[in-house]
């Protein structure tokens, strides 16, 4: 399994992100403010998270 920064600004793995927070509006805000990472296994996205700065 590899974890890497997700570079595409248009095709976020929304299904996975929405499984963590079902609010589309909030998820869209998270990906705008943070940095999205994905976990890949055999070239398939199997996980994702967004890191947000918390000052």
Automatic annotation (TrEMBL):
Q: SUPFAM superfamilies attached here?
A: Acyl-CoA N-acyltransferases (Nat)
Q: Which InterPro entries match?
A: Acyl_CoA_acyltransferase
Protein's UniProt name: GNAT family N-acetyltransferase
**Species of provenance:** Paenibacillus endophyticus
